[in-house]
């Protein structure tokens, strides 16, 4: 397991960053909030976990080991894979997620794309006793760097999270219609919530 990576940030996208480690550029997938804390050309250290599949090796990065453990914990629930676990952390801050699980707040959990009422109930049943509700929820801003158009980047990020092209484009366009000046991270978060409600 690749426990962590440290090195200069070569690139930042909406769903991943490239960190140079020992002369090798590693693509590390992360939430908008995590990516928002990185700066191109500056040193970064991320807690990581490597997900091994027959057809791929995917590295996921987190601001700290606590967030990584939450990512791994989510995947102990049947039907929750790494992409959905990452989408969960993209929509809900770790403390918000812990509180929702501890309190059995299905309304909050069903905001996660791909999670309906039954899945939310399963999350609560299986994880309620494994998390501790925080005393307060810290705020965190996310501001990923833009390389191509914001719309195209957000659509690409949604495709990377497992959504199909047409619904992803429709969700992004709907958000832009109401908030044409929305930043990339706000656009992604709102589109994710919209897609979650439509399922």
UniProtKB/TrEMBL annotation:
Domain (Helix-hairpin-helix DNA-binding motif class): residue spans on this chain: 72-91, 107-126
Cell compartment(s), UniProt: Cytoplasm
Region (Domain III): 148-199
MF GO annotations: ATP binding; four-way junction DNA binding; four-way junction helicase activity; hydrolase activity
Subunit and partners: Homotetramer. Forms an RuvA(8)-RuvB(12)-Holliday junction (HJ) complex. HJ DNA is sandwiched between 2 RuvA tetramers; dsDNA enters through RuvA and exits via RuvB. An RuvB hexamer assembles on each DNA strand where it exits the tetramer. Each RuvB hexamer is contacted by two RuvA subunits (via domain III) on 2 adjacent RuvB subunits; this complex drives branch migration. In the full resolvosome a probable DNA-RuvA(4)-RuvB(12)-RuvC(2) complex forms which resolves the HJ.
Family that this chain belongs to: Belongs to the RuvA family.
Function: The RuvA-RuvB-RuvC complex processes Holliday junction (HJ) DNA during genetic recombination and DNA repair, while the RuvA-RuvB complex plays an important role in the rescue of blocked DNA replication forks via replication fork reversal (RFR). RuvA specifically binds to HJ cruciform DNA, conferring on it an open structure. The RuvB hexamer acts as an ATP-dependent pump, pulling dsDNA into and through the RuvAB complex. HJ branch migration allows RuvC to scan DNA until it finds its consensus sequence, where it cleaves and resolves the cruciform DNA.
Domain notes: Has three domains with a flexible linker between the domains II and III and assumes an 'L' shape. Domain III is highly mobile and contacts RuvB.
Protein name: Holliday junction branch migration complex subunit RuvA
């Amino acid at each position: 397991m690749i426990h962590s990576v440290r090195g200069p940030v070569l690139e930042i996208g909406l769903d991943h960053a490239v960190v140079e480690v020992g002369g090798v550029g590693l693509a590390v997938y992360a939430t908008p909030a995590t990516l928002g804390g990185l700066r191109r050309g500056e040193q970064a250290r991320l807690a990581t976990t490597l997900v091994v599949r027959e057809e791929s090796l995917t590295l996921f990065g987190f601001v700290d080991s606590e967030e990584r453990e939450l990512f791994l914990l989510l995947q102990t629930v049947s039907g929750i894979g790494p992409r959905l676990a990452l989408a969960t952390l993209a929509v809900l801050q770790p403390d918000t997620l812990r509180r929702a699980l501890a309190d059995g707040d299905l309304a909050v959990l069903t905001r996660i794309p791909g999670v309906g009422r039954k899945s939310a109930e399963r999350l609560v049943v299986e994880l309620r006793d494994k998390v501790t509700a925080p005393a307060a929820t810290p705020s965190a801003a996310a501001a990923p760097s833009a390389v191509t158009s914001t719309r195209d980047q957000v659509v690409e990020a949604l495709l990377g999270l497992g959504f199909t092209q047409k619904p992803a484009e429709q969700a992004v366009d709907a958000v832009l219609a109401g908030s044409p000046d929305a930043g990339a991270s706000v656009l992604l978060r709102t589109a994710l919530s919209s897609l979650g409600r439509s399922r």
